[in-house]
Amino acid sequence: MRPLATRDLRADPAGWARQLGISREAVDVYLACESIDLHLDSFIWNRILRYDLRKRHGGGSFGSRFYSMVDFPRVREARLTGGIWVVTTNPLRGPEQRANACIENLRRLQGIFESVPGEFQVVRNVREYEAAVAAGKHAAFLGIQGGNALDRDLDALDQIPDDLVVRITIVHLSSSRIGVTSSPAARERRGEGLSDFGKDYVRRLDEKRILVDLAHVNREGFFDAVAVHDRSLPLIVTHTGVTGVTPHWRNLDDEQLRAIADTGGTVGVMYQSSFLGDPYWGGRSESVIRHVEHIVNTVGEDHASLGSDWDGAICPPRDLTSPLDLPRLVEHMLRRRWTPERIRKIFAANYLRVVAAVRG
To answer: 168 partner at 20 to 30 Å CA-CA among 15, 102, 189, 308?
Structure first.
């Protein structure tokens, strides 16, 4: 395939700043950072609508609501140095079908990245990430959204080829034999936590050095996972809001934040406007930073990250609809007098520390 058609925004940082309506300093600080998104769901639209990730897209039929937020040209132009790109599970399939579909989709997603080898590279650890970035490439980590993709039995996790998956979100929007979702749809299992199988599933993820992602699981299951998790390894929540800013069934409370921080983990703030406390169809990017700020104030700057959930059928802030808008987050941080070092941690370093602790 031909090289991606992209612009080098580093050649005119002042022009980028003017386009976004922010300070030149914000763009400069952003360009000096590595930038990693902990949750990119764009592959689902490739599966459903044949959305070609290698081509530049506009806002789609709904103006960057639900989908059409991310593609490879915009990732490259925005200097998004890394991201966790996820395969989402269809809970309506049977266990064997789910496993087969998951492995097939992982290979398919891997193949899409391999079709542009000069610009994207699938990575499994920090060493591979650093090599990819040094070569001027985007480093693509792969993840699974919904542990029920591989819950036929504990050995189903052995089907993942070559340590390809860096993290598994153990529960998604539907409950499973692993545990119960935080979604209000799980009323019939309210009060349940992880099953015995779910607890063993967490232990097996630890053994395989796959990050245990506690986004989406209900509060009881969250603390069950914390209790059985290998305390020598960090836990992660890749995409969430916090109840200290906006009470919501999808968000984490302060006790949960402390539990993640106590393991040395990190919490990624996502961009769904209603979870952030804004109108469902709108919102502004500063709301993301209000949630990041609460994490920093509650458990420290070493435990906050960014996990957009772009293309995950969300409605993001109207001024944060693609990676090209990311310097706006830096502007909000600078207005709070946050140091470049803190900003660097939130954009990439905290996540890399977590991966290094698990995978090197």
So the answer is: 189
Instruction: Look up residue 5 and give its amino acid.
Output: A
Question: Could you report the per-residue pLDDT of 74-126, keeping only the tens digit for each?
Answer: 999 999 999 999 999 999 999 999 999 999 999 999 999 999 999 999 999 99
Residue 96 covered by a domain: yes
Count of the separate structural domains present in the chain? 1
63: domain CATH number is 3.20.20.140
User: Cβ(211)–Cβ(358) under 8 Å?
Assistant: yes
Q: Kindly report the CA angle at 196 between 193 and 198, in degrees rounded to 5? A: 65
* DSSP assigned state of 2: P
Residue keyed to tokens 């934040």: 257
Count H helices, E strands: the chain? 14, 9
By CB neighbour count within 10 A (0-12 exposed, 13-18 middle, 19+ buried), where does 2 fall?
exposed
- In this structure, is residue 2 part of a structural domain? no
Tell me if residue 84 falls in helix, strand or coil: strand
Q: How far is residue 33's CA from residue 38's CA, in Å, rounded to a whole number?
A: 16
Calculate Rg over the CA atoms of the chain: 19
Distance CA 70, CA 76 (A): 10
| Threshold 0.85, pTM exceeds | yes
- Kindly state whether residue 40 falls inside one of the protein's structural domains: yes
Is the separation of the CB atoms in 206 and 175 below 8 Å?
no
Residue matched to tokens 């990693």: 36
d(CA 11, CA 164): 35
Domain span holding position 27: 9-359
Both structure tokens of 147: 């542990």
What's the pLDDT tens digit per position in 240-295? 999 999 999 999 999 999 999 999 999 999 999 999 999 999 899 999 999 999 99
Exposed (0-12), middle (13-18) or buried (19+): which is 36, by Cβ within 10 Å? Answer: buried
State how far the Cα of 43 lies from the Cα of 66, in Å rounded to an integer: 13
Residue 4, domain member (yes or no): no
In sequence order, the 6+-apart residues with CB closer than 8 A to the CB of 341 are none
Residue 53, token pair as written in the block: 């990730």
